[in-house]
Amino acid sequence: AHTTSNRKDAMQLLAGVKNIIAVVSGKGGVGKSTVAANLALALAENGAAVGLMDADIYGPSVPIMFGVRGQRPMMREVNGKGMIVPLEKYGIQLMSIGLLIDEKDAVVWRGPMASSAIKQFVTDVDWGQLDYLVIDMPPGTGDIHLTLLQTVPVTGVVIVTTPQTVALADAKKGIAMFSQAQVNVPIIGLVENMAYFTPAELPNNKYYLFGKEGGKKLAEEYELPFLGQIPIVQTIREGGDNGLPAMVSNDTITQEAFRNITNIAI
Ligand code: ADP
Questions:
Q1: Does residue 224's CB lie within 6 angstroms of at least one atom of ligand 1?
Q2: Domain 2-255: which CATH class?
Q3: E-strand spans in 46-178?
Q4: What's the pTM value of the predicted model, to 2 decimals?
Q5: Residue nearest to atom 15 of ligand 1 (CA)
Q6: 3-state class (DSSP) for residue 107
Q7: What are the residue ranges in the chain where pLDDT is below 70?
């Protein structure tokens, strides 16, 4: 009963949000944040109003990826309550723990504190009217995931994995979690990131550094929609570090890969 009432509250709070898409990965470092950021930008490209909630409390990357590190959001009074106003960059409404506190302070938080911070992203942030709220989830399958999925009416999850065995093993745990009766959130599909590398001087060659088509095979095994491959591209890494995500860079090939994901699934 507790869970139900939480969800109801969240639905009222996020009443202006039409679709909530959680981007998840079993393992850290597979490109979950990169995919979440570029998915948000790809959706906004079509004219949708899009927000990006960085729920990766222990490793917030949205401030760096969007080049808003050190900026602080404003407050606004809504129905007598002080609400945090998301920061807007490249047309996306952003919220991250890194925008509220010194990033290194959250690293030592225990689970309950991290979970309550996430709840505040729902209760205390004025998301307004959005077509999509993309949530960059923490890696893995822990308490924060359960809190979020039981609080927020998530429309569906996008699973990001690299093709290598260790990442796939963890992705399976994620699939199991979202399929559980306790959570039971629809899986929109699976993205295979860092699928291959093509050197500029050998444009027809693909090198499968982390193994070939591991994500695609996993999607087949679990009968999940396969949303596509994102290659390893130096500009993706550079853009991530420099506050210029691929979708707003001049890398048109990579942009097409991210656009395809939204075309297939969302
Ligand atoms: P996660 O959210 O899973 O921890 P990130 O999105 O932060 O992963 O990505 C980890 C690092 O890998 C970042 O430096 C990011 O820029 C880089 N990266 C992610 N995807 C790619 C890619 N397809 N090609 C090159 N670098 C990538």
A1: no
A2: alpha beta
A3: 50-54, 75-78, 81-84, 87-89, 92-96, 130-136, 156-161
A4: 0.93
A5: 237
A6: coil
A7: 1-11, 106, 181-182
